[in-house]
């Protein structure tokens, strides 16, 4: 295994990035030809692109990123929402809003409160959520998370409830991952935050999260525990962003080589200049650089979902989608009990993109995109290497596209205003007319008819 553990080898990453500066035009074009043919890129090729100066062929990078997104995933953009169940946490990360001065205010939701939150999310049309909790073995132990999962899946709304719960909780042991798998989670998400060990150790206070080795090997234990979809991420701005992208690429290559599937998703959050306890993050990433990073990641891992959150403004989200981002959160509340609080207080969303989910869907449709609430792969057992095999064969688009239209029809029927419904149905009709064969068109029209007549939870 050539790449084993190299994602933690800081000396290797620094050397690679130094040597990648100034690659000649012919070498860069060759890398881009490879990316354009959907082969993905090796981490050294990624380094060469990251180190291009402003005169490099960035326009081509952006075009290829958009082309890959269109060819592999079609027009769909998958929607999800976070659900914060507990902000008890024994860590004290320098970048975290939960960390400082929250001692007396920390809370966790009761199971009734979780069901209430899920009801609200369900009424927004969400089918896929990301459960978020701080690390606290006393106040929010694994048993609490397992109960929370059961509570979430028990809520049955208009069209059948939440269908996939991804989980973003602290690194843990193999047996705990096994229990999460048995509880029916989708993707296990854990951000490395930073791959750069000295920075990692300096921003992570004295809690258990400070253990770089334990944290950075969590996905091995998750895979050993049977979780075959794992999602990585880095908090861009803690350290040099090029370094973080190479860390992510090496980590994904490592997982692919050892377990047969690299990251299922990569999240791209970035830190705001004055976020957390520290008020100046010298590596904070500008908008232009962030777009470049997203596009290069799309070229490198064409089959990996790229996620951005409501941390980004609507305008940045638009630009990031054109660079290959494939999943968005919408209508998000980013505090424990936030959905119920918002209903009671009519509070504004405490995020950069504070539009309601329906406004976001309308906006996506105006952009010619299809918002999707699909969870079909997970529910048909297309996870891990089975998902990757379908993705790499190019077949994923043939399921993403119809499922996006089916779930949009479902959303429009159950939650859409009149204006929304007519817009969504017109878009669905247009997209079906664009399918290659009459047989495909007929089949999908029949499925949409079944949805409009009241059947639910259909997928291919
Ligand atoms: Fe915040 Fe998570 Fe760090 Fe806890 S572990 S302080 S919740 S970022
Ligand atoms: Fe995701 Fe699979 Fe649905 Fe496509 S078909 S949106 S990959 S769950």
Write structural notes for this entry.
By secondary structure, the chain is an alpha/beta fold. The chain is 49% helix and 9% strand. It contains 20 helices and nine strands. Strands 1, 2, 3, 4, 5, 6, 7, 8 and 9 form a nine-stranded parallel β-sheet that branches. Helix 11 links the parallel strand 5 and strand 6. The chain is globular, with a radius of gyration of 21 Å. It starts with 9 loop residues before the first helix and ends in an 8-residue tail after the last helix. The site of one iron/sulfur cluster has 10 residues, from helix 16 and helix 18.
Give a short synopsis of this structure.
The chain has 460 residues and is of the alpha/beta class. It contains 20 helices and nine strands. Strands 1, 2, 3, 4, 5, 6, 7, 8 and 9 form a nine-stranded parallel beta sheet that branches.
Features:
460 residues; alpha/beta; 9-stranded parallel β-sheet; 9 strands; binds iron/sulfur cluster
Bound molecules: iron/sulfur cluster
Which series of helices and strands comes N to C? HHHHEHEHEHEHHHEHEHEHEHHEHHHHH
Quickly give the structural class. Answer: alpha/beta
- Approximate strand percentage: 5-15%
Q: Termini separation (Å)? A: 36 Å
| Tally of helical runs | 20
Tell how many strands the DSSP assignment holds: 9
Helix content: 40-55%
Low-confidence spans: pLDDT under 50, at least 5 residues? 346-350
How many strands, what sense, and barrel or not for the largest sheet?
9 strands, parallel
Q: Give the CA-based shape.
A: globular
The radius of gyration over CA amounts to 21 Å
Question: What's the rounded overall pLDDT mean?
Answer: 91
């Amino acid at each position: 295994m050539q790449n084993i553990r190299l994602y933690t080898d800081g000396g290797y990453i620094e050397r690679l990035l130094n040597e990648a500066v100034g690659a000649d035009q012919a070498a860069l074009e060759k890398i881009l030809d490879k990316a354009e043919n959907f082969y993905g890129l090796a981490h050294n090729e990624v380094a060469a692109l990251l180190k291009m100066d402003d005169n490099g062929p960035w326009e081509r990078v952006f075009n290829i990123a958009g082309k890959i997104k269109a060819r592999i995933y079609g027009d769909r953009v998958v929607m999800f929402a976070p659900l914060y169940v507990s902000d008890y946490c024994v860590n004290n990360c320098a970048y975290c809003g939960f960390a400082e001065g929250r001692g007396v205010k920390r809370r966790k939701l009761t199971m009734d409160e979780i069901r209430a939150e899920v009801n609200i999310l369900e009424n927004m049309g969400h089918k896929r959520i990301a459960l978020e909790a701080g690390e606290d073995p006393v106040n929010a132990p694994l048993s609490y998370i397992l109960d929370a999962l059961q509570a979430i899946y028990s809520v049955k709304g208009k069209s059948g409830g939440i269908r996939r719960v991804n989980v973003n909780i602290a690194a843990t042991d193999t047996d705990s991952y096994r229990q999460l798998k048995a509880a029916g989670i989708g993707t296990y998400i854990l951000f490395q935050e930073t791959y750069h060990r000295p920075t990692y150790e300096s921003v992570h206070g004295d809690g258990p999260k400070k253990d770089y080795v334990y944290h950075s090997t969590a996905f091995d234990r998750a895979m050993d525990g049977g979780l075959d979809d794992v999602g990585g991420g880095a908090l861009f701005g803690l350290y040099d962003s090029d370094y973080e992208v190479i860390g992510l690429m090496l980590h994904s290559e490592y997982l692919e080589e050892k377990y047969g599937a690299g990251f299922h998703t990569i999240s791209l959050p970035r830190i705001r200049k004055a976020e957390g306890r520290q008020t100046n993050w010298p590596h904070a990433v500008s908008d232009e650089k962030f777009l470049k990073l997203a596009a290069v990641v799309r070229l490198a891992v064409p089959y990996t979902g790229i996620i951005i959150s409501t941390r980004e403004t609507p305008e940045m989200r638009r630009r990031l989608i054109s660079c290959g981002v494939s999943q968005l959160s919408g209508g998000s509340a980013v505090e424990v009990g936030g959905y119920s609080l918002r209903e009671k207080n009519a509070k504004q969303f405490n995020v950069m993109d504070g539009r309601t989910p329906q406004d976001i869907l309308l906006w996506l449709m105006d952009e010619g995109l299809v918002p999707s609430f699909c969870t079909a792969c997970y529910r048909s057992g297309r996870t891990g290497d089975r998902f990757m095999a379908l993705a790499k064969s190019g077949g994923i688009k043939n399921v993403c596209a119809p499922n996006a239209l089916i779930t949009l029809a479902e959303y429009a029927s159950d939650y859409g205003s009149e204006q929304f419904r007519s817009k969504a149905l017109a878009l669905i009709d247009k997209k079906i007319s664009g399918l290659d064969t009459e047989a495909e068109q007929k089949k999908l029209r029949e499925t949409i008819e079944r949805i409009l007549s009241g059947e639910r939870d259909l997928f291919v």
